[in-house]
Amino acid sequence: MDQWNGQQRAFAIKMFYKNYYCLEVAQMEFGRFFNGRRHGRVPSKHAIKTSIKNFEETGSAMENKSTGRPKSARTPHNIEALHVSVLRSPRRSVRKLAAAVRLSQECSLNSPC
Asked: Where exactly are the structural domains of the chain?
């Protein structure tokens, strides 16, 4: 249910409880309220169940934050090393650049790693 905002998640949870724990009715009410047409997009049953689980565990309808170890490959030192490597060999592949500074390919791109 990544594409649903907090208001929409809360509405789906509210409809689930209001309609005696019925996922199908929660989906139907969601579509009626947010889409206003017959075949609009609605959250899947699994997405509603996940939001309900998060709500019951944390008191929030939003997704849980990762509790795992934070990724630490994007340190200033690693960023500078990669920058220097790109300046030296601008036509080199991402795989080879990552290997040169001992980072994964994902960490060597612009995505946070």
From this structure: 6-58, 76-108
Largest CA distance in the chain: 64
How far is 61 from 43, CA to CA, in rounded Å?
13
> Residue-wise pLDDT tens for the chain (113 aa)?
457 788 888 999 999 999 999 999 999 999 889 876 556 688 899 989 988 998 888 888 777 666 676 666 777 887 888 788 888 888 888 888 777 777 765 555 554 55
> What's the count of helices (H) and strands (E) in the chain, helices before strands?
6, 0
Please, is 87 exposed, middle or buried when counting C-beta atoms within 10 Å of its C-beta (0-12, 13-18, 19+)? Answer: exposed
- The Cα 69–Cα 112 span in angstroms is 14
Task: List CB contacts of 109: < 8 A, sequence separation 6 or more.
Answer: 94
pTM of the predicted model as reported, rounded to 2 decimal places: 0.52
